[in-house]
Specification:
CATH class of the largest domain in chain A: Alpha Beta
Order of helices and strands of chain A: EHEHEHEHEHEHEHEHEEEEEEEHEE
Distance between the termini of chain A: 31 Å
Shape of chain A: globular
Number of helices of chain A: 9
Helix content of chain A: 25-40%
Structural class of chain A: alpha/beta
Radius of gyration of chain A: 22 Å
CATH superfamily of the largest domain in chain A: Alanine racemase
CATH architecture of the largest domain in chain A: Alpha-Beta Barrel
Oligomer: homodimer
CATH topology of the largest domain in chain A: TIM Barrel
Largest sheet of chain A: 9 strands, mixed
Number of strands of chain A: 17
Number of domains of chain A: 2
């Protein structure tokens, strides 16, 4: 099947671009001397996680217990759940994963969570590695003070069913900060705090084996400080339009967009616009509007028009696609867009070559 | 299982509130002398479509071929696809539905679409009812001029495989317009245009049997004009926070919120906030922020904090939920929120009584 004949709306994944992005990132990490455990919250796909493992990744980060379940069931090893597991349901499901032998570690940011984690690890007969998360300005999850993080590491180390495995910090609020030098300066400040935390843990006899964090926007800057032992960057596999124009190092941005949303033209009876069948239910709305690409006239722009529709406006006189034609958009935010779809339509150039289910999507 | 023990994030549907909303709407429609074909784009669930049919609805409207497939497979009759079927894929799938005997009608807004529809109806050996859509200011789909709509109706009537079934108009841009009197005035203007269209069709010997449109925000106002023969309102079953405070008639708003998103507290180590596991992937972002409800301290407010997280801020000294507790939010926009979830957790009061799959979600 050809790329422009697929059913719409659909998520298109350009395999050549994906493979190139993976190759660039893994080659860079090797040269920088840092490991990769890319975040699966972006792709939610065992197929992509497996490709990253094959290229040298340690495993996959997961944001939710559901993602960990889907990847573990597909045989992905080296799982790390980056958000605390706290509710009765999350703990019961983590227990089942441990009892089934999943290769998994978790984070904690609260001493009340340590007992609960220890209890399920003990019941599952497994020693559970726990990473202490520290908040470095995002104000979302993580211990607030360095003293809290050290006390938490101690209580984990004292629990016979748990192993203190290291520390995590994620500066989500800095990932797309511009100008680049401001991002660089803020990363340097955060690294001072990380070094203080590490020194405090070493002083307490608990040197962290794993130091994990980072994202696509700061991976290069973070690595310059040689603090993180592994990086969680995930969006680089797709490069959405938020990351597309963003400099990631003094050399710019080496990645290429691999993810597109295909939409069909449902109305073409106005001189300066067409209506397509992709709206709030096919494209994430949290980070701006998608951009029409691939054979669309220059100057064309997309507007959301409700749950199932968008309008593409054209400059006067510009050629418009025909009624029933399939067009493509670059999404502004890859993670929640992927979450709206059940599968990737995998293409090479203009040919559809495969279909990969988004097994870890939704709840 | 109790409502506060479910896995999170989850979509909770309060059955008593749902049934009450259905009862209120169907009783009103009966008294107003207008039929209901509620839009399934809101609920995407054969269980809810069946409940509406049982209460007297004619059938269900669908926004996509995928919704029509899911409802037809579940035995729902009286289907109407409210957006044009134009791509090769949509037409092939419509053909399959017709060939399998689905009870379905469609819309058109372009003469180039009539031949394609006629061809698949002929091949399926079925006469396909086609509704002509007119644009009354939304500028999304629909014929632009009354003359275009009449010409289109003629070409449908002349096609032996098609039946001209009537007209459709949807004023999505007026559904939540305030003040109420402004919405009322704009509806009255649109109805003048509808009457002109109907007169023109009658003049051409093509009186429309079905006149369909409307939504939750204008259903009462629309019905006062006695133009529509049937209404497509759908969101009333849930009443999200966009519709919640909205007056729908001079008597206010008779419906009650039945849809909630449950989230678990993952971080509770700050004095004035907690972090919960529901963000862009569990709650639609297109129409504002969700509202914490049910046992949460007054003054509490939700902030999106990325793909999987939100922060709930509290007034100083206000009681906060415990780590691991399950809280509930009212979503700002029900349709795209439902689309993020795989199932409704159906409750009566504090007890979980059922689980309904959202079979027509996603693509």
């Amino acid at each position: 099947m050809r790329r422009d004949e697929i059913k719409t709306p659909a998520l298109i994944l350009d395999l050549d671009h994906l493979d190139r992005n993976i190759e660039i990132m893994t080659a860079w990490a090797k040269s920088a001397g840092v490991a990769l455990r890319p975040h699966a919250k972006s792709h939610k796909s065992p197929d992509i996680a497996r490709r990253l493992l094959k290229a040298g990744a340690l495993g996959a980060c997961c944001a939710t217990i559901a993602e960990a379940e889907a990847l573990a069931a597909a045989g992905i090893t080296g799982l790390h759940i980056t958000s605390p597991m706290t509710t009765t349901d999350m703990l019961a499901r983590l227990h089942r994963l441990l009892a089934r032998g999943a290769d998994i570690m978790v984070v904690a940011d609260d001493p009340r969570n340590v007992d609960a984690l220890g209890k399920i690890a003990l019941e599952a007969g497994r020693k559970l590695p726990v990473i202490v998360e520290i908040d470095v300005g995002t104000k979302r999850t993580g211990c607030v003070e360095i003293g809290d993080a050290v006390a938490l590491a101690k209580s984990i180390a004292q629990n016979k069913a748990l192993a203190f495995a290291g520390v995590q910090a994620y500066w989500g609020h800095l990932q797309q900060l511009m100008p680049f030098d401001e991002r660089k300066a803020r990363v340097a400040l955060n690294m001072e705090r990380m070094r203080k935390l590490i020194a405090a843990l070493e002083g307490a006899g608990l040197p962290p084996r794993i130091i994990t964090g980072s994202g696509t926007g700061t991976h290069w800057l973070d690595a310059q400080h040689e603090v993180f032992t592994e990086l969680q960057a995930g969006s680089f596999v797709f490069l959405d339009s938020c990351y597309g124009p963003l400099p990631l190092s003094p050399d710019g941005n080496p990645f290429t967009t691999s993810l597109f949303v295909a939409a069909g033209v449902v109305t073409a009876n106005r001189p300066d616009s067409v209506t397509v069948n992709a709206g709030f239910k096919a494209l994430a709305t949290d980070s701006g509007t998608p951009q029409p690409v691939r054979g669309i006239a220059q100057g064309a722009s997309y507007r959301f028009m409700g749950d199932e529709h968008g309008v593409i406006d054209f400059d006067p006189g510009a050629p418009r696609p025909e009624l029933g034609a399939v067009i493509e958009l670059v999404t502004s935010h890859c993670d929640p867009t992927v979450n709206l779809h059940a599968r990737y339509v995998v293409v090479r150039g203009d040919e559809v070559v495969d279909e990969w289910p988004i097994l870890a999507r939704g709840y």
